[in-house]
């Protein structure tokens, strides 16, 4: 069973930076869109940023100019570079990917287990 594995979360002071990474735990046939979501305590999960297989990106207004999503298709890895972090960025960040395990299977939505980001003031 393929899983998305995230890394890079942690505790950082306001104004600091973190870089999140996410990749499938095993081989896959193809990956379409990839993205990062976050869920803060007591709030709904929200889209942070997404990137298509061709490299087109989309960002939540709250992170534009501070966060950058990128992907390395050769490594099947998506990154989220987070700069100028604010306390309100504190949340569990989840990786998401629309991927196809084999040619014979339809693309499906996969989620990572989440990585916690805490920004102290």
Blueprint of the fold:
Layout: E1 4-7, E2 10-13, E3 18-24, E4 30-39, E5 46-51, E6 57-59, E7 67-72, E8 77-82, E9 91-100, E10 108-111, E11 115-120
Question: How would you describe this protein?
Answer:
This protein has 121 residues and is mainly beta. Strands 2, 4, 5, 6, 9, 10 and 11 form a seven-stranded mixed β-sheet that branches. Strands 1-3-8-7 form a four-stranded antiparallel β-sheet, with no helix packed on it. It contains no helices and eleven strands. The protein has strands at 4-7, 10-13, 18-24, 30-39, 46-51, 57-59, 67-72, 77-82, 91-100, 108-111, 115-120. It is 0% helix and 55% strand.
Tell me the number of helical segments per DSSP (H or I, 4 or more residues long): 0
Write down the secondary-structure element order. EEEEEEEEEEE
Q: What coarse outline follows from CA principal-axis ratios?
A: elongated
Q: Give the beta-strand count.
A: 11
Instruction: State the helical fraction.
Output: under 10%
Find the structural class using helix and strand composition: mainly beta
| Range of strand content | over 45%
The biggest sheet amounts to: 7 strands, mixed
Radius of gyration: 14 Å
Q: Ranges with pLDDT <50 over ≥5 residues?
A: none
Q: Mean of the pLDDT scores?
A: 96
Report the span from N to C terminus: 40 Å
């Amino acid at each position: 069973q393929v899983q998305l594995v995230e890394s890079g979360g942690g505790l950082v002071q306001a104004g600091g930076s973190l870089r999140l990474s996410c990749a499938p735990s095993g081989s896959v046939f193809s990956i379409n869109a990839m993205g990062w979501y976050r869920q803060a305590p007591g709030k709904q999960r929200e889209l942070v940023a997404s990137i298509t297989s061709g490299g087109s990106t989309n960002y939540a207004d709250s992170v534009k100019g501070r966060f950058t999503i990128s992907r390395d298709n050769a490594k099947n890895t998506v990154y989220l570079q987070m700069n100028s972090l604010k306390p309100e960025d504190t949340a569990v960040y989840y990786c998401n990917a629309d991927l196809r395990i084999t040619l014979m299977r339809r693309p499906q939505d996969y989620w990572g287990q989440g990585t916690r980001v805490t920004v102290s003031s």
